[in-house]
Amino acid sequence: MKAEKIRKGNNILPAKGRLGVLLPGLAGAVSSTFIAGVEAVRRGMALPIGSLTQMGTIRLGKRTEKRIPKIKEFINLANLEDLVFGGWDIYEDNLYEACLKAKVLEKNLVEDLKDFLSSIKPYPAVFKQEFVHNLQAKYFKKETNYLDLIAALKADIEDFKRKNKLERCVMVWCGSTEAYITPQEVHQSLEKFEEALRKNDPNISPSMLYAYAAIDSGISFVNGAPNLTVDIPALVEMAENREVPIAGKDFKTGQTLLKTIIAPGIKARLLGLKGWFSTNILGNRDGLVLDDEASYKTKRVSKLSVLEYILQPHVYPELYKDVYHKVRINYYPPRGDNKEAWDCIDIFGWLGYEMQIKVNFLCRDSILAAPVVLDLALFSDFAQRAGLYGVQEWLSFYFKSPMCKEELYPEHDLFIQLMKLKNTLRFLMEEEQITHWGLDYYME
Ligand SMILES: NC(=O)c1ccc[n+]([C@@H]2O[C@H](COP(=O)([O-])OP(=O)(O)OC[C@H]3O[C@@H](n4cnc5c(N)ncnc54)[C@H](O)[C@@H]3O)[C@@H](O)[C@H]2O)c1
User: Fold this and answer.
1) Where would I find the Myo-inositol-1-phosphate synthase GAPDH-like domain in this sequence (predicted)?
2) Distance CA 276, CA 357 (A)
3) Which of 121, 176, 376 has the most ligand 1 atoms within 8 A of CB, as the residue to mutate?
């Protein structure tokens, strides 16, 4: 990204007109909970709890200045009233039907929003069974060759923009987790990727086709699932060439969110760690998809990377060299979207004496994910108007496996991630960076 391309302060383009939020996986639990939730907030029926863009504040200048505006007052974000929702799914359900099937929100709320929700219907998906084994697609594009599928996706985007009179769009992948693949030769450069597109190469997944269509349409792309998708040199190169922001991957919501809250604390006080066993039960459609080994592996790899980076065993071998980290996800239909997670954390302290921490998190997966989708949609639109493009590392706060430049390592500590995000906003608004140094208050 070229520094001179960045627009700061008053030069950031205004959030004028309506913003389209395109979601592959539109009829899923996360998308439907997000969209119904935004509408409930717009109607004054509920609060956008968990959303930094809606409820968060940012300190500016010295503590003595007492300048702590809300983030949405500090930067020029799209208003909730200006958001319009669309996307794709392999099921034809409108959003009212999708909310009822997902069973995340109370029926009364869904009924109150019925008119609005029924009016939102997906476009037919781009789907390949090899990438999601446990779902049977009912509603998908009949084209078989990749270039035709990309053209069809771009036509949907144009149709959506025209019908809704949109100024701008963002795309957030809320589709199912795809089968595990590792980066191949065809992913290494845009030239090779485009060559592979022409040959319908099996290493290109549907999420990559959506991402390609988005970037080619000048639309930022955020990946909420652990699939590779834009986390390959070819699509990073394309995003840079086209000056489009990209971010990912895998929303950080339940167990991993807590892990990246607890682990930095253990490390900060130099307590040792012997092992961390994490297990989950969940019974939603996401759980069904993850019940297949290929998709499960994609998720497990994403969840496992967190501790290694936070604890830095190469820097603290006495404390973290042999950590036994195990993650399990079990599909258990009776729980639906209400996931239950258990963590058994074996730590040791002074002179090596052992202790244990047990965490039992009874969470609601989509309730935790919805504000993350909202923030990512608004921040990625803001990034584009500020002239940022390529990988948006400052949005790491929202991801289990944050994307970053190749020669860097990802930052997983939630508190460092938040500081990174807020300092990026301060930088763009030409405010001083805050280091929390503090001695300056005491020096004469
Ligand atoms: N809920 C969370 O806390 C959370 C956290 C991290 C990541 N995620 C990820 O977010 C994604 C969505 O989660 P969810 O709980 O809503 O799952 P879900 O199964 O309810 O929704 C996914 C939707 O994607 C659709 N889909 C599958 N393949 C598609 C394709 N090729 N094109 C368009 N649509 C397609 C499915 O039909 C389904 O409606 C999953 O990948 C999940 O792993 C969720």
Assistant:
1) 254-366
2) 10
3) 176
Q: Which residues pair with 83 in a beta bridge?
A: 19
Q: Which residues pair with 172 in a beta bridge?
A: 222
Cα–ligand 1 centroid distance for 87 (angstroms):
12
- Measured distance CA(285)–CA(283) in Å, rounded: 7
Residues composing the chain: 444
Q: What is the pLDDT of residues 171-189, one digit of tens each?
A: 999 999 999 999 999 999 9
Instruction: List the structure tokens of 182.
Output: 């590792």
For the entire predicted model, the pTM comes to 0.96
User: Please, which residues bridge with residue 130 across strands?
Assistant: none
User: Dihedral through CA 54, CA 57, CA 58, CA 61, nearest 10?
Assistant: 140
187-215 tens-digit pLDDT? 999 999 999 999 999 999 999 999 999 99
**CA 385 to centroid of chain Cα atoms:** 20
Query: What dotted CATH number matches 255-362?
Result: 3.30.360.10
Q: Please choose, from the candidates 80, 65, 68, 87, the residue with its C-alpha nearest in 3D space to the C-alpha of residue 21.
A: 87
Running DSSP on this structure, what letter comes out for residue 359?
Answer: E
What CATH homologous superfamily does 3-251+367-428 map to?
A: NAD(P)-binding Rossmann-like Domain (3.40.50.720)
